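pipeline: protein-struct stage 2 | run 1193 | Glycoprotein endo-alpha-1,2-mannosidase
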Amino acid sequence: ILNYDIMARFRRRTCIILLLFILFICSIMMALKTLRPDRAGFGDPFGLGLLPELQQRTVLLDSKQNSLNRVQGDTVTRVSNLRSIAVNTMKASMPPVNKLEEELSSPNYNFHIFYYTWYGNPQFDGKYLHWNHPLLPHWDPKIANNYPKGRHNPPDDIGANFYPELGSYSSKDPTIIEAHMKQMLSASTGVIVLSWYPPGMADENGEPTDDLVPVILDYAHKYSLKVTFHIEPYKDRDDRSMYHNVKYIIDKYGSHPAFYRHKTSTGRFLPMFYVYDSYVTIPEIWANLLTVSGSQSIRNTPYDALFIALLVEERHKHDIHRSGFDGMYTYFATNGFSYGSSHHNWASLKAFCDSNNLMFIPSVGPGYIDTSIRPWNNHNTRNRVNGKYYETAFSAALLVRPEIISITSFNEWHEGTQIEKAVPKRTGQVVYLDYKPHKPNVYLELTQKWSEKYRKEQEQWLM
């Protein structure tokens, strides 16, 4: 009986020791797990297979990880109790996600991102704007008859193939604006290219948004971002109206610290204006505004600026030069859709620009799908391929060594070019696309990675 009691006590003690040991190992593993930065989600084999470039650490990430390792090492040296090491390390290595994103990112003012403030909802606007976008008919009535008609019905049914993490938001909501600024900063973009119509004007599905500009500027400044303007093709846009609108923008917003000015090769700091659909106005009209001898010339005045034209067809490059523009951008996120958006044409466009003292600003995008508003336009869809399409576009852009890269877009949800956070959603018969197997911020992460890659390569170009 004595031997049996001894053996029973021994077994109990052994089990207790084993259980404590397992708990200790688990606590250590939990502590080590929290040391992995949020980006480590890309470290799984499946993710690396799809996005092999993400195996390369950026300088900022290396620095962040090294500092975390130093904190861990110092803690081990100072503290003798292993359990308290685990607890302290867990507490020390769990900053809020937003704080971590901002610490890992700094704005890159050579990365410009197109941004839209035309969204509205009943809470802030009294009704839905743009989320309820109509289904656009094909121009051929015979084809149009084969597709549905009508409008979308938010909040569950919106005019987009993806669904935003922030829901069917209003662009007037200050919390939304701030969330967008945090996302753009986390992506290491630096300049917001703000879609803009003159006061009292808007696109056919929206309402005037010029009164939002001061708020956008204030929040941009809070996050060290800059704002420039994407002049949309408003009614009767010509040399005279453009002169007045440029004057209006510079007079009203030019003194704000977030107002973007680009340093030119001559050392001047000039505002920059992207001009969407510039090709619909003939070169002679633009030349009135943009050449020194033009009848409406803005050159060598307090309102002089860098004007960037949209290039769609190859012939537009000659029109852009004759018009007096300072450069060209390609906007569309559809490789092969137009001459300008086709990656293989960027080298020749860059060579043309270099020989004519023009800026070439290629536009990269994560993909394209607009069948939620143009159900007949399947042939222009560009699958994201879990980020590979986006990375291919960045690779093509870096090959031509551009001074600026533009990104289409932060939140053009109708055309599926957004890098804003999106989430899976299924409602009724509608199943939205999503970013799985990755997280909602995958395209912000990819943008941040390529921003750092661009910075490193640019240093080599300048040597």
